[in-house]
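WARN retry 2 of 3 for item q-0093 after timeout on previous attempt; input resubmitted unchanged.
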Amino acid sequence: MTRRHRLTDDGVAKLKAKAKRYTHADPELPGHYVRVQPNGVKSFVVVARDPRGKQHWRTVGALPMKVDDAREIGRKTIRSIREAPPDSFEGVAREWFKRHVVKKKLRSAFEVERFMNQHLFDAWPGRDLSSIGRKDVTRLLDGIEDQHGARTADEALSTLRRIFNWQEKRDENFTSPLARGMRRQNPKEQERKRILTDDEIRALWDATSSGTSYARMVRFALLTGQRREKVATMDWSDVDGNAWSIRTEKREKGNAGELILPDTALEVLGERCEGLVFPGRGGKKISGWSKHKAMLDKRAKIENWVFHDLRRTARSLMSRAGVRPDISERVLGHTLEGVERVYDRHDFVSEKGDALEKLAGLIGLILNPPQDNVTYLKTS
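OK item q-0093 returned
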């Protein structure tokens, strides 16, 4: 076994430049390196993964810094990357997530954590929460809006407000930097009214002919009007013949319950097996929604739509197919208000099944429209 020699100041000075940049490891401190540029410039760098598993390279300093000094700073830098300081934005945000979101068992926990990892934590790495000002928040929201749209920027603002307000109640020395008027959209403009046209439904159906889990999931969502999360977590153990029993989560107001699926929807499910109906890698729940949708958008060439629009489209198609509004609402799992919710305890399983049959029939007509010279007679 070759013994690795201790890194010294003389050893660093003797490192020679090469045609390409390279790093020389410090045996005494894993993750600490000397980086040598092709022009001979040398610097000390460290690499470590943060609590989310993301790798970060940080420059510690350059020569004539001594190896022992670089090593000492490097240890602190590696520790700061691996462990978010308690007073940092990420440290406070993680404490809020643990004590508020997780402790209260909010159903949005997974989505909130994913959003913070994707859009917030990289904004101010290691930075004290108290040092973050309004200008910092504005720059962050501008960048999110430019890359992901105003809707995502407002979602970031909403998450930041929840974190800052929570900390403000716990720390008398902290004041939230947020102010009125920082939203990027008018609340009324945020209300989505988008449904897919018949041409877009045909384009979407053609684009999802690949048979992948995501493609089948898109079709199934349109045929049933169910939320993305319900479809993504659908398990074969929940399916008995043509009946799908939708699981009720804690703190959930309501869902569609039991649905009798039409043949078209059953065909989308494919062959029965163990585990998830629409599995991702390793049989786990599908992830990387944005990437999947971006690939689908390229094939379908449909603009300005989101997955939830499928649910609104299904509801509109049911009305078009003659389904009673109260039955359509029950198919979507919406909680009815007033006396009807209190006194009507019927399960409406068969009625919801008929509604899905009509929805599937109308989608079939949209995908294969009749010839212009065919006249359909009304039956009495």
